[in-house]
């Protein structure tokens, strides 16, 4: 990590606009409108089973992660799911993704979950470097 890396912190309301832009860049299919992304961000902030974390550089958001706790019959209890992870291209390669995932793991350890899982099509090697193991292929189907 470079010397100007600030920190990973919980998201706050003021992060909504920046995270909406990041979410648009993360989208694999149809991109959410800024207002729809901000509405989703607000809903996530209000959930006790969700952690929205922000990586900062010089006090400005440069990345984010969303992790959610959910009950899972297959796990015999709850699991934590990393549903979104994004770092701005100009800020990659400096350990920010790793710091975000490690912060999410710390958060998840307080949720009494069986494990953390993530679906990814672009970052499998990254997650494997953090100790994740490939277990399944995830598919999606748009509705409506």
Structure description:
The structure is a single chain. With 144 residues, the protein is of the alpha+beta class. Helices cover 30% and strands 28% of the residues. The protein is built from four helices and five strands, in the order βααβββαβα. Strands 1-2-3-4-5 form a five-stranded mixed β-sheet, with helices on both faces. α1 crosses α2. The chain starts with a strand and ends in a 15-residue tail after the last helix.
- Dominant shape: globular
The residue fraction in helices comes out at 25-40%
| Main sheet overview | 5 strands, mixed
The CA-CA distance between the termini, in Å, is: 43 Å
Number of strands: 5
Q: Which architecture would the CATH scheme give at its second level?
A: 3-Layer(aba) Sandwich
Order of helices and strands: EHHEEEHEH
Q: Count up the helices.
A: 4
Uncertain parts: none
The CATH topology turns out to be Aminopeptidase
Trace the largest sheet across and list its strands: 1-2-3-4-5
Question: What is the count of distinct domains?
Answer: 1
At the fourth CATH level, what is the homologous superfamily?
Gcn5-related N-acetyltransferase (GNAT)
What percentage of amino acids are in beta strands? Answer: 25-35%
Radius of gyration: 15 Å
Average pLDDT metric: 89
Judged by helices, strands and strand pairing, the structural class is alpha+beta
Q: Identify the CATH class.
A: Alpha Beta
């Amino acid at each position: 990590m470079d010397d100007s890396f600030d920190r990973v912190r919980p998201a706050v309301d003021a992060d909504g606009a920046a995270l909406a832009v990041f979410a648009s860049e993360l989208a694999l299919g149809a991109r959410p409108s800024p207002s729809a992304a901000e509405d989703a961000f607000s809903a996530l902030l209000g959930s006790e089973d969700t952690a929205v974390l922000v990586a900062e550089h010089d006090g400005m958001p440069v990345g984010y992660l969303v992790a959610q706790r959910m009950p899972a019959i297959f796990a015999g209890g709850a699991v934590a799911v990393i549903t979104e992870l994004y770092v701005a291209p100009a800020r990659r390669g400096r350990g920010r993704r790793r710091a975000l995932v490690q912060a999410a793991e710390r958060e998840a350890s307080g949720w009494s979950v069986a494990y953390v899982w993530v679906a990814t099509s672009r970052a499998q090697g990254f997650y494997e470097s953090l100790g994740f193991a490939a277990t399944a292929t995830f598919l999606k189907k748009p509705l409506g």
